[in-house]
Amino acid sequence: MGQQEIKILLAEDDKNLGTVLKAYLDAKKFKTTLRINGLEALDEFNKGEYDFLILDVMMPVKDGFTLAREIREKDKDIPILFLTAKSLQEDKMEGFKIGADDYLTKPFSMEELLVRIEAILRRTQVHKENVNKEFFTIGKFSFDVTRHILSADGESQKLTSKEAELLKMLCARRNETLDRSEALKQIWHDDSYFNARSMDVYVTKLRKYLKSDPSIEILNVHGVGFKLITE
C-alpha cells in the first residue's frame, strides 16, 4: 500500500499538538483528518473510509479507550496507535486488550511517530495478504488451507478444521507472536481456561506433524501466545 493512499484519523484534544501532528503527517504524504474529542472522531470514522487511527487516551466527551472499543465493534482490523500522557503499565494493558497495535507516551518525537506508523502498516499489510492466502509453504511442507492438507516428502496429513485454522493463523503471522486470546476467540469463540488447555493440545499435535523438518519450530511465548518460526 503506497503511503499516499493512507488516510489517518487523528483524535487529539490538545489543539496545538493536533495541528502540529496533522501538518507533519500531511507533509509525509498521509491524508490526515484531525478531530478534537472522541465523539467527533467517532462521527468522522462512521462517515469516512480510514486506514489508520491515532487516538489520544485522555480526551473530553469520549476518551480514547471508549472510542477504540466502539470502533473495534465495527472494524476488527484497522490499526490503532494510542497517544498517552502517562506510561502506566495498566493503561498499556488496557489498550492492548482493546486491540491497540502500539503506544506512544508523550512527549515523543515526530520521527518516532513516523517509525511506529510505518512499522504497524508493514505488519498489518503482510498480515492482510496472508489472511486471504489459501496455500502456505512452511519449510519442506506445503499446507493447503482449503482442503486442510499438510504434505511433505510425498506424504499427506489431513488436519481437523481446528488444527487447520490454528496453523493458518500461525502461518499468517509467521515469525511473529500469535496472541493466545485472539486465536481462542477466533477458533473457539471463547477464551476460557478449558479452551486454552484444549488449544495447547492442538499446538502439541501441530508440532508433531511438523517435527520431521528441524527448521520449523512453534515456540511458547510465555503469557502471550505462540510463534511459528521458519527459516
Summarize the model shown.
45% of the residues lie in helices and 23% in strands.
Please give a structural write-up.
- The chain is of the alpha/beta class and 231 residues long.
- The protein folds into two domains: 3-123, 3-Layer(aba) Sandwich (Rossmann fold), CATH 3.40.50; 133-229, Arc Repressor Mutant, subunit A (Orthogonal Bundle).
- 45% of the residues lie in helices and 23% in strands.
- The chain is built from eight helices and twelve strands.
- The strands form three sheets. Strands 2-1-3-4-5 form a five-stranded parallel β-sheet, with helices on both faces.
- Strand 8 and strand 9 form a beta hairpin.
- It is elongated, with a radius of gyration of 20 Å.
Largest sheet strand order: 2-1-3-4-5
Binned strand content: 15-25%
CATH fold label of the largest domain: Rossmann fold
Low-confidence stretches: none
What value does the average pLDDT take? 88
Number of domains: 2
**Biggest beta sheet summary:** 5 strands, parallel
Radius of gyration, whole Å: 20 Å
Q: What distance separates the N and C termini?
A: 26 Å
Structural class: alpha/beta
Helix segment tally? 8
CATH 4th-level superfamily of the largest domain = Response regulator
Architecture (CATH level 2) name of the largest domain: 3-Layer(aba) Sandwich
